[in-house]
Design goal:
The complex is a heterodimer of chains A (about 110) and B (about 110).
Chain A: E1 4-5, E2 10-14, E3 19-25, E4 32-38, E5 45-51, E6 56-59, E7 62-67, E8 72-77, E9 86-93, E10 102-103, E11 107-112
Parallel strand pairs in A: 2-11
Antiparallel strand pairs in A: 1-3, 3-8, 4-5, 4-9, 6-7, 7-8, 9-10, 9-11
Chain B: E1 5-7, E2 10-13, E3 19-24, E4 31-37, E5 43-50, E6 53-57, E7 64-68, E8 74-78, E9 87-94, E10 104-105, E11 109-113
Parallel strand pairs in B: 2-11
Antiparallel strand pairs in B: 1-3, 3-8, 4-5, 4-9, 5-6, 7-8, 9-10, 9-11
The chains are: A mainly beta (about 110), B mainly beta (about 110).
Chain lengths: ~110, ~110
C-alpha cells in the first residue's frame, strides 16, 4: 500500500526554466510534508517542508504547494540550475506516529544547460 | 555534511550471517531513525528511538533489531541475512523525535549479501 506516490520517475528541464515535481498521498492523517534531495552515494538532504495548516511555503528558489482536498503537493524550483539535478523524494508524517516518515519512490530531475 | 555518521560505508557478507550497522546522531539530537532503501525502492522506515526508548516501528523484520545506547548512538543488527536484505541502510537523527522535526540523514551503509 503506497501511501505516498510520485508518479513521474523522471523529469527533464532546461536550465533557467521551472521544474515542477508532484506528489500524491492517500492517508488523511498526514499533517506534515517534506521534500528531500538525494545525490548518488549520499544520504537525502532536507530541502523544504510544509505543515497541513498552510498551503504554501517558500524558501529561495524552492516553493512547496499543498492541496489538502486533492491530497496533492508539489515542489516548484525556479529557476532550475544544473546543480539541481538529483533524485527528489517527498515524505509525509502524522502527528500520532512519532517521527515516522513515509517516502515516495522519488523523481529523478535532470536540468540541462 | 549532515553531522550524522554511519559505519561502515560498505559491507559485503554471505547469506545466513549477522552484521551490525552503527550510527552516531548529530550533536544535540535525541532521536535516531533507521531506513532501508532497496533497489528501485523508496526509503522504507524501519524503526525510531528517542533517548534510548523505542518510539515508532515500521515493517521491520523479526530478524532485524536495533537499540539506542546511553551516549545516543544506535546500532541496527541484521541476522540470518538473505539475498533480499541487500540494500542501502540510512540512519537519520532529529532533535526531539516529533513528526514536525527535520530529520538529517547520514551517508548510508551499503550492504551486499552474496
Amino acid at each position: 500500500d503506497q501511501q505516498v506516490k510520485q508518479n513521474s520517475p523522471s523529469l527533464s528541464v532546461q536550465e533557467g526554466r521551472i521544474s515542477i515535481l508532484n506528489c500524491d498521498y492517500t492517508n488523511s492523517m498526514f499533517d506534515y510534508f517534506l521534500w528531500y534531495k538525494k545525490y548518488p552515494a549520499e544520504g537525502p538532504t532536507f530541502l523544504i517542508s510544509i505543515s497541513s495548516i498552510k498551503d504554501k511555503n517558500e524558501d529561495g528558489r524552492f516553493t512547496v504547494f499543498l492541496n489538502k482536498s486533492a491530497k496533492h503537493l508539489s515542489l516548484h524550483i525556479v529557476p532550475s540550475q544544473p546543480g539541481d539535478s538529483a533524485v527528489y523524494f517527498c515524505a509525509a508524517s502524522a502527528s500520532n506516529q512519532g517521527g515516522k516518515l513515509i517516502f515516495g519512490q522519488g523523481t529523478e530531475l535532470s536540468v540541462k544547460p | 555534511d549532515s553531522g550524522v555518521t554511519q559505519t561502515p560505508k560498505h559491507l559485503i557478507t554471505a547469506t545466513g550471517q549477522r552484521v551490525t550497522l552503527r550510527c552516531s546522531p548529530r550533536s544535540g539530537d535525541l532521536s535516531v531513525y533507521w531506513y532501508q532503501q532497496s533497489l528501485d525502492q523508496g526509503l522504507q522506515f524501519l524503526i525510531q528511538y528517542y533517548n534510548g526508548e523505542e518510539r515508532a516501528k515500521g515493517n521491520i523484520l523479526e530478524r532485524f533489531s536495533a537499540q539506542q545506547f546511553p551516549d545516543l548512538h544506535s546500532e541496527l543488527n541484521l541476522s540470518s541475512l538473505e539475498l533480499g536484505d541487500s540494500a542501502l541502510y540510512f540512519c537519520a537523527s532529529s532533535v526531539s523525535g516529533m513528526s514536525t522535526d527535520t530529520q538529517y540523514f547520514g551517508p548510508g551503509t551499503r550492504l551486499t549479501v552474496l
